[in-house]
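Practice problem 4.
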């Protein structure tokens, strides 16, 4: 069975996938990545480019002896996996783009990248992590898994936050959507405050072989707000 690689988003980490590992792990091997500067790899220097993150993940998979794999990217991780398709197309089987888009500037985001940069400098890493993590949940700080998600986000340093924002701001994959040959699934929560429908629609219409799943009543962290629905969608599509 083809292994599934999970790439988290900005200020995320592999621990965010704990609600998926049991269900998905019953069907296949799951590799949850910690990007440099985030999660369990917060001691590593972060990268200031999406391409740099993509090449780092590919290098990690090669060093562990993985061949072909299915690939899922969440949020900034969705940008990273789009870039991975460009650099490792022959090894990627199926592609899942979850709560993400093809434009790093994120039009319609809850605040601009520039505002996030300025507030991160003013407020510091911990306050920034907790504030931004709250936007990922429909009920913000009252979300059931907010506390755990915020604790993971807090592991990001000020330098990693700045690097991640720079990486997103400097990236666009719009011109390459038509080159994605993999069977692809786009997953989006209909109350997402980070990626509006316009971004999701660009992926859905721009990638040649794409299915779309819109999950109602949740925001940016569908896999935490409605894990049973998310896991069922993912398993059904991957095995289809």
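Answer key:
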């Amino acid at each position: 069975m083809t292994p599934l690689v999970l790439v988290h988003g900005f200020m995320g980490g592999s621990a965010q996938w704990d609600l998926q590992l049991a269900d998905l792990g019953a069907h296949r091997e799951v590799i949850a990545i910690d990007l440099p500067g985030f999660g369990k790899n917060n001691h590593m220097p972060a990268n200031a480019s999406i391409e740099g993150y993509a090449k780092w993940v590919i290098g990690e998979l090669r060093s562990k002896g993985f061949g072909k794999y299915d690939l899922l990217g969440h949020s900034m991780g969705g940008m990273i996996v789009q870039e991975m398709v460009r650099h490792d197309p022959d090894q990627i089987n199926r592609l899942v783009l979850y709560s993400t888009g093809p434009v790093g500037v994120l039009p319609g985001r809850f605040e601009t990248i520039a505002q996030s940069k300025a507030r991160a400098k003013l407020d510091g890493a911990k306050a920034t992590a907790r504030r931004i993590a709250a936007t990922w949940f429909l009920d913000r700080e009252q979300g059931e898994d907010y506390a755990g998600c915020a604790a993971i986000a807090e592991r990001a340093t000020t330098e990693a936050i700045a690097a991640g924002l720079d990486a997103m701001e400097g990236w666009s994959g719009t011109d390459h959507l038509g080159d994605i040959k993999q069977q692809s699934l786009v997953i989006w929560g209909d109350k997402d405050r980070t990626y509006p429908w316009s971004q999701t629609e660009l992926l859905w219409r721009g990638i040649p072989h794409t299915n779309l799943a819109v999950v109602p009543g949740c925001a940016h962290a569908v896999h935490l707000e409605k894990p049973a629905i998310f896991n069922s969608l993912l398993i059904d599509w991957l095995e289809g």
